[in-house]
Amino acid sequence: MTRMTNPLILKLEQRDQLSEEEKRTLENAISRVRVVEADEDIVREGDRPSESSLLLDGFAARYKIVSNGRRQISALHVAGDFLDLHSFLLKTMDHGVLALTTCRIAAVPHATLEKITDEYPHLTRMLWLNTLIDGAIHREWLTAMGRLSATAHMAHLICELYLRLKAIGRAEGYTVQLPITQAELGDTLGLSTVHVNRVLQELRKEGLIRFQGDALTILDWERLKKVGEFTSTYLSLQNEDR
Amino acid sequence: MTRMTNPLILKLEQRDQLSEEEKRTLENAISRVRVVEADEDIVREGDRPSESSLLLDGFAARYKIVSNGRRQISALHVAGDFLDLHSFLLKTMDHGVLALTTCRIAAVPHATLEKITDEYPHLTRMLWLNTLIDGAIHREWLTAMGRLSATAHMAHLICELYLRLKAIGRAEGYTVQLPITQAELGDTLGLSTVHVNRVLQELRKEGLIRFQGDALTILDWERLKKVGEFTSTYLSLQNEDR
DNA sequence: ATCGAGCATAAACATATGTGAGTGCGGCTA
DNA sequence: TAGCCGCACTCACATATGTTTATGCTCGAT
After folding, report:
1. In the predicted structure, residue B4 carries a pLDDT above the cut 80
2. Which residue in A209, A237, B116, B165 has the fewest CB atoms around it within 10 Å?
């Protein structure tokens, strides 16, 4: 993996500058890369990982199954995201992580993370920041789920995913590849598959999006943002001293 | 404030041991204590705090207002919780924090936090852990909101609050003081006030809880846990090396 | 070239939860 | 002591979303 293509570094450098040494440290932190096929578990609930998984390519989801077999997805992840950085300190996984598409995953040993916290304070803060952004996204999803209509919630999610994909260079104009089924979107939004379909029809009919196959195009960014009551503050896309 | 009563230290020591020096450092981190009355804002959306607020006593909530004036509470906080530790690295508040009761609040300057990250790696990890637990709670709420019935969701919340209050020594047997109105519970669960009332009636009728005034008593812990599909893993109440 | 699997879509119907408009209690405040 | 205000609680009715069942694509496998 060359430095230029490491999506984690890309992600962090949008939030603050990294020194050459910090970048080198991050690259050396990766112990091995594996491939997980779509629909396979990357980490399971109850696991106590000794390393954290960094998603290099593909789409993954954190999820939980409740008693009647229903599933809730609590996070969607794209290249550059850590899938379970929290397991470094939380130890036991309270949810599973699933590959939505074929995923390339790098392993970062917890021992290495501990060493980073001992020796590289600023890099430690940047990793901490990474988990704080996850938390900010959780809060935003909670608000959308609790207080927005299904349509607004979907619009909100689409805005977020578009910006996150754009931030790692995976948008072409207003089009992104989003290989996520309507059932998976339902599990993300807390909706039934049928209702996801209704809501997508509505967004299409309103001329806000096009979504055929995996290609999602935002046709009217301003109106979509308005429908989804979306503001991007919580994604911390600004470069600041941290 | 004497060491014995510092609820943050109490909280962290349940998760891992702290050295005397770490405890002293935490205590010295507090620059001043203020009191905020019920229904006042502690931090506002859009603020860029230069210090983080540690709740010493009282109940507080993180919240967001959406366009039609509806409110969603994304976190409930009790003594020992940081209300906006994340603002140390996220910089801009993407939500507000509100006092639900009279609150005693200690200020911890971000400059002090930065110094801690430079000099005390283990203490840094413990603060990071603190925010990771917030994140774990968010994920659990997402699952409950998306995939549990209103009744189960309420049961789940009650189980969580009971354990969190017990963990800081604020439970008497199965009774806790919970000075939260039904409207606030609705904003937490994403429900209307009317439905909160229905759901509480049901839990009472089932003999699971008693809730008069502020006193909440769990009458049948096992069945309440079952109704709310509650397991406490996500609260990280175990003591481990971190 | 055919088949099957997975997925998007549709319609009819069911229901959990929301809305609007009240009542009444209990505790402050004057 | 009276009056008010916030809060718990109720009822009748409205609706957003769920459920069940089915159809027909599309694409990969054989």
Report:
1. no
2. A237
**For residues B147 and A71, is the Cβ–Cβ distance under 8 A?**
yes
- The first and second tokens of residue B203, run together, are 């839990």
Q: In the structure encoding, which two tokens stand for residue A89, read together?
A: 């300190």
Tell me the two tokens of residue A103. 């995923």
pLDDT at A2: 40
Tell me the per-residue pLDDT of B65-122, one tens digit each, with 9 for 90 and over.
999 999 999 999 999 999 999 999 999 999 999 999 999 999 999 999 999 999 999 9
Which residues on chain A are in Cβ contact (under 8 Å) with B129? 89-90
What's the CA–C1' distance between A117 and D8, in Å?
51
Where do runs of H (alpha helix) occur along chain A?
Answer: 7-13, 20-29, 87-90, 110-119, 121-147, 150-167, 182-189, 193-205, 221-227
pLDDT tens profile B107-123: 999 999 999 999 999 99
Residue of B90, B92, B190 with shortest CB distance to A146: B190
Q: Is the pLDDT of residue B2 over 90?
A: no
Token match 């935003």: residue?
A140
* B38 burial type by CB count under 10 A (0-12 exposed, 13-18 middle, 19+ buried): middle
* Residue A113 confidence class, pLDDT cut points 50, 70, 90: very high
Check CB contact under 8 Å for A233 and B94. yes
Nearest to A60 by CA among A201, A221, A179: A179
The two tokens of residue B234 are 């996500």
Residue spans of beta strands (DSSP E) within B148-204: 171-172, 175-177
pLDDT of residue A1: 41
Give the mean model confidence (pLDDT) for residues B196-201.
98
Rounded Cα gap, residues A207 and B183, in angstroms: 37
The answer, yes or no, to whether residue A4 has pLDDT greater than 80, is no
Residue A3 has pLDDT above 50, yes or no: no
Q: What percent of chain B has pLDDT over 70?
A: 98
A66 interface with B at CB cutoff 8 Å: yes
Distance of alpha carbon B61 from alpha carbon B83, whole angstroms: 8
Residue pair A225/A159 in contact (Cβ under 8 Å)? The answer is yes
Please say whether the beta carbons of B145 and B74 come within 8 A. no
Greatest extent of chain B over all pairs of C-alpha atoms, in Å: 55
Buried b (16+ CB within 10 A) or exposed e, B177-188: ebebebebbbbb
Q: Are A80 and A7 in contact (CB under 8 A)?
A: yes
| Cβ A125 to strand D below 7 Å | no
Q: Is the CB of B149 under 7 A from strand D?
A: no
Give the separation between CA A240 and CA B91, rounded to whole angstroms.
Answer: 8
